[in-house]
Amino acid sequence: MATAGQALALALVAALWGGTGPFLRKAAAGMEELQGRGRLRQLLAELRFLSLNCQYLVPFLLNQAGSLLFYLTLASTDLSLAVPLCNSLALVVTLVTGKILGEDIGGKRAVAGMLLTMLGVSLCLAGA
After folding, report:
1. pTM over 0.85
2. Of 68, 88, 70, 67, which Cα lies nearest the Cα of 79?
3. Which of 15, 70, 92, 98 could bridge to 103 as Cys pair (CB 3.0-4.6 Å)?
């Protein structure tokens, strides 16, 4: 059974993972237009573009903080609860954040999917 602190940590991980995804997509826009001569120069141009872009770096670092918290939380949480809980809640947070940023999330089917995901998370927590 997960304690309240563990459940809160897992919810924070989901918020960090899900909340940063749309911001990363938005900040990486325009990277397709970079042109480097050869694969190595293309890679270096893309790395330079991303590493000098604060709108990309801040969400990236927050996302990595979520990964670190997930790793630390796994030491004391049941794996069969932590992975589905974090991944499903991250999906819901990604959809909500994307909608707030003006992305098309898919309409009624996406809302139905979020509700079913929340039902599944509730069942996981109730059974733990």
Report:
1. no
2. 70
3. 98
